[in-house]
Amino acid sequence: MVKAAFIGFGEVNTPKAIIIDKCKKAEEALLKQGLELLSVYPVTDDYERTDVNDAIKKLTNVSLSSIIICVAGWIPSHAIIAITEKFRHIPMVLWGLSGWIEDNRLVTTADQAATSAIRKVMDDLGYRFKYVYDIVGKTMNSKKVADFCKAADAMTRLRSSKAGMMGYRDMNLYGTMFDGAKLKKHIGTDIESFEMLEVAQRAEVMAKDRIEQVINTRIKKWNFISKCEISTLEKAAKYYLAVSDICKERGYEAVSLKDVDGMKKLLSYPPAPVFMLLSDVDGLSTVPENDSYGMVTQLMVKYLTGQCGAYMEFYEFMEDCVLAGVPDYVPKEITQGETTVMPAAFGQLSQGILNVSKVKTGNVTMYRLAENKQGFCMHIVQGKAVNAGRWEEAGWTQPAPQLPGLKIYLDDVESFAVNVMSQHYIIAYEDNTDKMADLCRLLDIEVIR
Known about the structure:
Elements (H helix, E strand, L loop, with lengths): L1 E8 L6 H17 L2 E9 L6 H10 L6 E6 L5 H8 L7 E5 L3 E3 L2 E3 L3 H14 L4 E5 L8 H18 L2 E5 L13 H7 L3 E5 L1 H9 L3 H10 L5 E2 L5 H21 L3 E4 L1 H8 L5 H9 L4 E2 L5 H14 L4 E8 L3 E5 L9 E2 L3 E5 L7 E4 L2 E2 L2 E10 L4 E12 L17 E5 L3 H7 L4 E6 L3 H10 L3 E3 L1
Parallel strand pairs: 1-2, 1-3, 3-4, 4-7, 8-9, 8-11, 10-16, 11-12, 20-23
Antiparallel strand pairs: 5-6, 13-14, 13-22, 14-21, 15-18, 16-17, 19-20, 19-22, 20-21
Helix pairs in contact: 2-3, 5-12, 5-14, 7-9, 8-9, 9-11
């Protein structure tokens, strides 16, 4: 639950029952959006400042990720500022409610007179806030308010987030490198490194009963379309357990492994089933090939939407769509139907377990965090995902596996292509662009659409 303070304001001369009723309706609308509220209303501009002082007292020493300044009627600016100045470090929403129609006439409590008087003041004071206003006769803008509060909560969680990475810069790709100090300063995530040697050492002494339990309770539930060697299953289980233990011990919420030049080259084992187990069993955000900013993008998506933030890789750009797929695995969360796998070899690699599941279709949003000169930027693109049809990547043992993939139709493929930030993008279903834009604004991240 996202916890926010809800402070309802109205002038001392306005009938108190009206202010209370308007604030209560706004409060109930926010609760339906999934917020947990610490509510204080009505707060008036009484001469003794009793309401203001009571509000400050109730909010002090309480853990909050955001504050909702709900303006239910005219209120002099000083009554709001007297409270907000005590909590200026917390993101806020300035929410102006509206009047109503009664007996064919509009009745107003001058809500937007109050927000008009305070908006620029809050901006001049350097508050991090969003201004939202309601319109007479229209549905309350509670979702916009709640989305900002969820973005503020995500920002708070990012400040203490940790991700783990085995190895660094797989395939010597430039786009997977990261600036640790810059990342900590602007976003807050710590990416810590651990060695493949540690994983291999832990795997070699892994208890047999733990390995058998993973095989029997997890791996054998997958739909194998052809028989797989038991040694392949055992490697999947023991490497998963080794990485899982490291992540749990160190508090990682996301993880990436050195894939091509790491596990495939040195351990002769493609890590696709390891990623599947880490995602599906442990609930970790996972992305291959030491994709550092891909992991951070995943955490941002996860905190905002509750979705895993699966990665997709681009294979082809077409006139009206892009072919996005994966050469290894997809999390169960975005799988259409059961998890389907097969033993397969690619090039000179030994047998591995390849995920060939179908991917869920629908409206998607693709995200990618990248560095720019000022700090960071976020590329956000919406599209319609449909089944990719039959396609394959050259190099697989024939008959080649039909890899998980989507054709994602975009409004403007060329605009996307000229701004593309990486071969990996993180996807979430439905439209969550406003929440991500709010989060980026809070973190001073440039948004590119």
